[in-house]
């Protein structure tokens, strides 16, 4: 009978980076090769989105990929990216493209980038109480509850409100991303937790759990901590920690398993 071959596994350093294995005269002893290094990609940065985003692409999206940024806005994420390395499809509401209803064929994209409004204040129907006068102002005006462009809920139910409006937007956009992504395609989602109606909402956990129901695998998570202090006005008593960090979530659309 032929002897069964021993299964081999990659050698990883303390950062989880695969290193070369140095052959040893003593077959019973395994020696790690490679070199000690600190220039690896980490999971947490005190920096801006445009500094962190290139690391995400370098780690998870190969050059030559076709990437749809469906909430492109002013293109902040792409400021430090060499666009010659990718085919970028930049769309948002200004170009008439809704991230919940994309104009792409099924299984046609290598990657999708999603960064919708992640504060319920941006999605209020009453403009006098709504938040967002900067880069998300256009999203606020379009997606806000009570506008004609707001899609109804599933099965014809009324549009979601408050924090539920935030997650509803992420969930619908996530389902649409699943449709347009190829097998092993990458979905990069920017989000932030929030306190709404004096209740803590861990939005990134809600997104991860919901996307798992669609079939996505949550492969990676990056924490981005702002470099300046957030201002707070009209606070009588603080009951929750002020959010000064956000997340990039990286999801994979797995290739279907073959049935034997």
Which helices and strands, and how do they pair?
Elements: E1 11-12, E2 18-19, E3 21-22, E4 31-32, E5 44-46, H1 49-60, E6 66-69, E7 87-90, E8 109-114, H2 137-143, H3 163-180, E9 181-191, E10 194-196, E11 199-201, H4 203-214, E12 217-225, E13 245-252
Parallel strand pairs: 5-12, 6-7, 6-8, 8-9
Antiparallel strand pairs: 1-2, 3-4, 9-13, 10-11, 12-13
Helix pairs in contact: 3-4
Domain DNA methylase N-4/N-6: 110-257
GO biological process, one term: methylation
InterPro entries: DNA_methylase_N4/N6 (IPR002941), DNA_methylase_N6_adenine_CS (IPR002052), SAM-dependent_MTases_sf (IPR029063)
Q: What does this entry look like structurally?
A:
- It is a single chain.
- With 260 residues, the protein is α/β, with parallel strands linked by helices.
- It has a single domain (44-228, 238-253), classed as Vaccinia Virus protein VP39 (Rossmann fold).
- It is built from four helices and 13 strands.
- It has helices spanning 49-60, 137-143, 163-180, 203-214; strands at residues 11-12, 18-19, 21-22, 31-32, 44-46, 66-69, 87-90, 109-114, 181-191, 194-196, 199-201, 217-225, 245-252.
- The chain has a seven-stranded mixed beta sheet, sandwiched between helices. A two-stranded antiparallel ribbon has the order 1-2.
- A hairpin with a 5-residue loop joins strand 1 (11-12) and strand 2.
- The longest helix has 18 residues, at 163-180.
- The chain is globular, with a radius of gyration of 22 Å.
- InterPro entries: DNA_methylase_N4/N6, DNA_methylase_N6_adenine_CS, SAM-dependent_MTases_sf.
């Amino acid at each position: 009978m032929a002897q069964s071959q021993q299964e081999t596994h990659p050698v990883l350093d303390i950062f989880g980076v695969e290193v070369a294995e140095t052959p040893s005269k003593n077959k019973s002893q395994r020696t790690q090769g490679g070199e000690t290094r600190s220039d690896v990609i980490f999971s947490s940065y005190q920096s801006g989105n445009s500094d962190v985003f290139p690391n995400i692409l370098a780690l998870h999206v190969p050059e030559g990929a076709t990437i749809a940024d469906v909430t492109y806005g002013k293109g902040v994420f792409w400021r430090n990216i060499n666009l010659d390395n990718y085919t970028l499809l930049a769309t948002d509401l200004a170009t008439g493209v809704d991230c919940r209803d994309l104009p792409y064929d099924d299984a046609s994209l290598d990657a999708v980038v999603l960064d919708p409004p992640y504060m319920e204040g941006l999605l209020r129907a009453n403009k006098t109480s709504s938040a967002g006068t900067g880069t998300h102002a256009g999203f606020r005006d379009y997606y806000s509850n009570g506008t004609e462009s707001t899609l109804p809920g599933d099965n014809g139910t009324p549009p979601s409100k408050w924090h539920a409006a935030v997650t509803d937007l992420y969930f619908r956009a996530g389902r649409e991303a699943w449709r347009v992504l190829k097998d092993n395609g990458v979905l990069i989602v920017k989000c932030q937790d929030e306190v709404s109606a004096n209740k803590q909402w861990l939005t990134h956990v809600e997104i991860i759990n919901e996307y798992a129901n669609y079939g996505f695998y949550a492969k990676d998570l990056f924490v981005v901590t702002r470099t300046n202090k957030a201002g707070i006005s009209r606070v009588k008593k603080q009951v929750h920690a002020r959010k000064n960090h956000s997340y990039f979530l990286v999801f994979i659309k797995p290739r279907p398993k073959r049935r034997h």
